[in-house]
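step=encode ok
step=design start
structure_in=
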């Protein structure tokens, strides 16, 4: 079975105030063309279809167009909701849409209800695990704790229990929107780690043939069977080194001769490049050097992030840079300072520290060096987690249903 794996479309998102709707439409064209020309048997979209819970109308219209075109193509499509999506809104009409071959999986309670497709080698069960906000889905999944590993492990136990009831040789594909240990992050993913450990071990997904991941925006391979497709477009300058692509996965027959069970199917994967609307460049130095360096000519047509290191802020820096780099989008200042400069040392102290550590350091500062005790650290963690849950949970209803009226999928 040939599976086209993509994720993190973030329809409706802009890039430093540059509207990306045209670029996102070009990606949808590319997706449909690739599915047709490469004869994909299934398309999987591993979450973050939209960029926010209530997307703009233009983004909804583009998503509607994508659904119609995939349905007309006759290629079954399986989608899950991500942490940027509203699970309830994305899941509205799932029962009707499913009749057209587009399967929306947004309800955590139904993570063990697969979409079953057949090829010459038998059945392939696609299990959709939408983004699981631990505090909202713990009871639904009977997880022992409100943590990312606990709820994903509980969901996967349900998946394996269902898979055990399937005929021998049934292969399994899992879609999940999560931060798996070993994945490389970028600046454009919304943080899901405040107040707890966000990453989950890859071993959580043991026992299935392929795991199509979403959430991290860089295309990457964690193991042969566990991969991120990454976002089709760059959404931050930290993604400048990324090669934006999708995975075209070939899933062969299960190795029933050795009776090793799920996870034994032959597998190969090929990267399919996505259209690039404009390259990204990060340049750094004194303004006169940036304006004169011939080696930077290759960035003159790129979207540019410029960081100036002049000890004294130059006059009209943006206007001067724009004359050479007409698509410069962001300008930052990082003046060269002596090592003993207190502002520089403060920045170094903050670098690499998360919100919990910064809060604990502040408590120690105002107390003359005495940091929080274990109980106070728990209170800080709970407060930070409550803020994050309110931001991510309100409007997304990650623990809610799809609004569907049918029980069969």
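sequence_out=
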């Amino acid at each position: 079975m040939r599976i086209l794996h993509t994720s993190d479309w973030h329809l409706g998102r802009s890039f430093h105030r540059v509207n990306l709707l045209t670029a996102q439409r070009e990606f949808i064209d590319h997706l449909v063309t690739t599915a047709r020309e490469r004869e994909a048997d299934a398309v999987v979209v591993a979450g973050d279809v939209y960029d926010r819970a209530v997307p703009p109308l233009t983004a909804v219209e583009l998503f509607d167009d994508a659904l119609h075109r995939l349905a007309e193509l006759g290629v079954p499509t399986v989608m899950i909701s991500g942490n940027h999506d509203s699970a309830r809104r994305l899941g509205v009409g799932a029962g009707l849409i499913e009749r057209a071959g587009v399967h929306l999986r947004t309800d955590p309670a139904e993570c063990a209800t697969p979409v079953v497709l057949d090829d010459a080698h038998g059945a392939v069960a696609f299990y959709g695990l939408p983004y699981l906000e631990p505090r909202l889905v713990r009871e639904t999944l009977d997880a022992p704790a409100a943590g990312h590993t606990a709820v994903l492990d509980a969901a996967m136990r349900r998946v394996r229990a269902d898979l055990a009831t399937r005929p021998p040789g049934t292969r399994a594909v899992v879609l999940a929107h999560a931060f798996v240990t070993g994945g490389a992050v970028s600046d454009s993913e919304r943080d899901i780690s405040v107040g707890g450990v966000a990453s989950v071990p890859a071993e959580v997904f043991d026992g299935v043939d392929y795991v199509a991941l979403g959430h991290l925006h860089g295309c990457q391979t964690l193991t042969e069977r566990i991969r991120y497709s990454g976002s089709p477009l760059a959404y931050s300058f930290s993604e400048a080194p990324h090669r934006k692509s999708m995975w075209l996965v070939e899933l062969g027959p299960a190795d029933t001769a050795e009776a090793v069970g799920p996870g034994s199917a032959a597998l190969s994967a090929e990267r399919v490049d996505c259209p690039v609307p404009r390259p990204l460049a990060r340049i750094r130095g004194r303004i006169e050097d940036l304006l004169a360096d011939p080696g930077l000519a290759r960035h003159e047509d790129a979207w540019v992030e410029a960081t100036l290191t002049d000890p004294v802020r130059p006059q009209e820096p943006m206007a001067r840079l724009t004359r050479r780099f007409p698509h410069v989008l962001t300008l930052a200042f990082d003046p060269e300072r002596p090592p003993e400069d207190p502002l520089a040392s403060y920045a170094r102290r903050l670098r690499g520290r998360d919100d919990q550590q910064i809060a604990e350091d502040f408590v120690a500062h105002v107390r003359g060096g005495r940091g929080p005790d274990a109980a106070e650290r728990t209170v800080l963690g709970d407060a930070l987690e409550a803020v994050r849950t309110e931001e991510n949970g309100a409007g997304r209803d990650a623990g809610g249903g799809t609004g569907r009226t049918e029980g069969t999928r």
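step=design ok
step=annotate ok -> Residues 398-409 have pLDDT under 50 and may be disordered.
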